[in-house]
Amino acid sequence: MASIKDVAARAGVSAATVSRVLNEHPAVSPDTRARVLAAVAELEYRPNALARSLRTAQTRTIGLVVSDVLNPFFTELARAVEDEARALGYSVVIGNADEQPRLQDHHIATLLDRRIDGLLLSPADGASPLLRETVREGSVPLVFVDRWIPGLDGVPVVRADGCAAIRDLVRHLHALGRRRLAIIAGPAATTTGRERIGAFRAALAELGLTLPQEYIGQGDFQADSGRRSAAGFLELPEPPDAVFAADNLMALGALDEFRGRGLRVPEDIALAAFDDIPWFPHTAPPITAIAQPTRELGRAAVRALADRIEGRTASSVTLSARLVARRSCGEPERT
Amino acid sequence: MASIKDVAARAGVSAATVSRVLNEHPAVSPDTRARVLAAVAELEYRPNALARSLRTAQTRTIGLVVSDVLNPFFTELARAVEDEARALGYSVVIGNADEQPRLQDHHIATLLDRRIDGLLLSPADGASPLLRETVREGSVPLVFVDRWIPGLDGVPVVRADGCAAIRDLVRHLHALGRRRLAIIAGPAATTTGRERIGAFRAALAELGLTLPQEYIGQGDFQADSGRRSAAGFLELPEPPDAVFAADNLMALGALDEFRGRGLRVPEDIALAAFDDIPWFPHTAPPITAIAQPTRELGRAAVRALADRIEGRTASSVTLSARLVARRSCGEPERT
DNA sequence: CTGAAAGCGCTTACAG
DNA sequence: CTGAAAGCGCTTACAG
Q1: CA A243, CA A273: separation in Å to the nearest integer?
Q2: For position B140, what pLDDT does the model report?
Q3: For testing the chain B interface, which of A3, A59, A114 should be mutated: the one with the most B CBs within 10 Å?
Q4: Which pLDDT score is estimated for B128?
Q5: pTM of model > 0.85
Q6: Range(s) within chain A of domains with CATH label 1.10.260.40
Q7: Which residue of B has its CA nearest to A259?
Q8: Which fold does the domain A59-159+294-320 belong to in CATH?
Q9: B4-47: what fold?
Q10: Does nucleic acid strand D have an atom less than 7 angstroms from the CB of B112?
Q11: Exposure on the CB side of residue B48, measured as CA atoms within 13 A
């Protein structure tokens, strides 16, 4: 590949001059500019971003470490992040933690080594040593998106609050006559995992219901754990009459299990999920879900991060989620 | 951030020595090694990957440019690519073309600027000038995955052949009494778009059926186009009695449209899709689909690329897809 | 308006 | 076994 020296030689100028025209420095005469541009075209020259970044100490790249790319919520989030980042002149490099803290740290480390300008993180669990150090040293501007880590002050959080929607869901189930409500929870190490079970329990309490231990399935936000938890519920002497899965993948797992056992939803058991996805209107039955403003989250997160990177102050933003009632808990599906 | 000089100073050695212990060069005495390692730990030193890559002319990174991340097929492919790449010691940077040639080229350019060691590409359409040049110059080892570009010789292709499965599908529909078969095709500029409609037409011909122009919906592999094509079919004087969507997103769009108009699947119209996804068993009705060995594709593609990067010869690989009959075309759903 | 020089943070022959 | 030196490909004060 041609280097800046080749271009300089061809245009009969110095490398400094080539650099200037490429960076649109004003002080270049029109015709040297033309000669340089011609040489660039002839040699099909592409500046080496590594060298440039090494010199300027910025990469115009942000990292996005997501808990699980196979989860449509994160896929959509990643997509929104990419779009907004591109609009602001950044590229994004995605790392997939697959819900494993180890893998998350691997990606964070790789991204730091690459000297990304900023990091968007949806932590797979609590704060690893690497993460604490990153925050403490301020080695890279950081913004949490969706999930966050309490106690790491000064890190903006962009997320959706699902509490009100979960309360709506519980009331919805209650209104439809369900009384034995169970939850397939996310990992307690995640904020979303805790928030969702907390809101669920609180809403139950408001209605005078409790959440017995057997009605708490411990999931990890992935499909298999939904399957296992659902199986556990069904083997109880008194199985629940409604199950709330704390994300869409665990709902998929639960649905698999229900069908495998020949149960009808919602007749035999109701099912609802956190996170709405395009397929939910088409499942049998259509699944009641809590929808997050996913694209807005992605965009807001990028803007907050860009603010930090570029020296402005960034603030946290909390949007809200909303209940989309379909048929999987009974009734609905008018529209 | 600490640099190699800081570490060297702290350990009382030269930068060269620090470099040697970090790269596990054998010729380092045990105790200098220990001193260096201690300094590294104390300073929480992380080598600058940019500088290293600039010097060594390799990034240990491969690029993956995918036609549409929101398509579960590509998400799963990306995931498999990441896993295999990590196993081989590479990281991967993903670019999402969103089915737009312009955006695809933007990502390819960005990746080239970053001096990735190799590129995995599922082209959004024909060969852009940038792509032709990349191949011609051999500026970066390239492997096509899923889709490819005919005429660019010497570029290995890792893909699944869907022809036999499509033939199986057409026979399946025929056996169930369907005679007016329509297709929502992908872009003619893509190999998969062409292959799928070609195989469909050929299978029809074998049964003495033709594929009239009105029964060809021109889609772009995204949901909206599925919706529009389905609407077009339904407004025909003689609508089809079966629709084959050339990917899962267009099937989603078609399903949306059918339901919006109150049509029953499969009673009023049969539906089948290319690409199987985890939700298909749970839709109403469960959707008959053609499943690709997606993970194997991703892994094989990475291996082929690594072969090229590391100077071995890489060959193309063609796996095959298979029909998974469910209820959306009538009957099935035993299992 | 333009060039020579220094330097970003590494690695790697070359000496010793 | 270890260090000094050169160089990867850029950018950017500093002179002129």
Answers
A1: 8
A2: 94
A3: A114
A4: 86
A5: yes
A6: 4-47
A7: B282
A8: Rossmann fold (3.40.50)
A9: 434 Repressor (Amino-terminal Domain) (1.10.260)
A10: no
A11: 21
